[in-house]
Every structure is written in C-alpha cells, then in structure tokens.
C-alpha cells in the first residue's frame, strides 16, 4: 500500500475531488487550507499573498497510484503545474 499526499491549489479542490470520485477513491483526508511557499510562489492566505493550498492524504493499493495521478493531471490541466504529489510506502495500517 502507498500513502499519496497531494498538495493542490485550494481553488482546484472541486476538480480534484471529482477526479477522486470518478476513480472510486472515497476515503481520503483533507486539510482544506495550508500555507507555504514553493515553485508557484507564496501561498499565505494574507492580503498580500491571498492564495492557499489544500493537502489531501489518500491510502491506496500500489497499482492504483499511477492511474490516479494521471487522472488527477487530466482532471485539472490548468493546475497540474501547481499540483504536487508525494508517495510513501505504508508498512502497516491499524
């Protein structure tokens, strides 16, 4: 199993959530507003830098990771440059 951590522009959450439903991914955890800085600039939720990101955590079978990532890219081509995915191995779930 793998843990997929997605960091996406908050304004793209609806497209991402639709893609998860289309790929039959119904279990995930979302932190709707996270702050930080990266390749797309500052996302601080402030007046000067009003944008924020969302963090989505998904545990899924190894063989579904690549398919899901491609579906996410296709669902939101305009946010693909701002979307980041980190994949960790899951040794055990309780």
List the helices and strands and how they pair.
Elements: E1 2-9, H1 13-22, E2 29-34, E3 36-38, E4 41-43, E5 53-60, H2 65-75, E6 84-89
Antiparallel strand pairs: 1-5, 1-6, 2-5, 3-4
Helix pairs in contact: 1-2
What's the gyration radius in Å? 13 Å
Tell me the β content. Answer: 35-45%
Largest sheet: 4 strands, antiparallel
Number of alpha- plus pi-helical segments: 2
State the domain count: 1
CATH topology: Alpha-Beta Plaits
Task: Explain this structure.
The protein is an alpha+beta fold. The protein has a single domain (2-89), classed as Alpha-Beta Plaits (2-Layer Sandwich). The chain is 22% helix and 36% strand. The chain contains 2 helices and 6 strands. It has helices at residues 13-22, 65-75; strands spanning 2-9, 29-34, 36-38, 41-43, 53-60, 84-89. The strands form 2 sheets. The protein has a 4-stranded antiparallel beta sheet with strand order 2-5-1-6, with no helix packed on it. A two-stranded antiparallel ribbon has the order 3-4. Strand 3 and strand 4 form a beta hairpin. The protein starts with a strand and ends in a 5-residue tail after the last strand.
């Amino acid at each position: 199993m793998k843990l997929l951590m997605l960091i996406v522009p908050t304004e793209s959450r609806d497209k991402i959530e639709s893609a998860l439903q289309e790929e039959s991914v119904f279990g995930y955890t979302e932190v709707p507003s996270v702050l930080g800085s990266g390749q797309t600039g500052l996302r601080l939720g402030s007046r000067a830098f009003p944008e924020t990101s969302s963090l989505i955590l998904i545990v899924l079978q190894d063989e579904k990771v690549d398919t899901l990532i491609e579906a996410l890219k296709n669902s939101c081509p305009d946010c693909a440059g701002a979307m980041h995915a980190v994949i960790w191995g899951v040794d055990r779930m309780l």
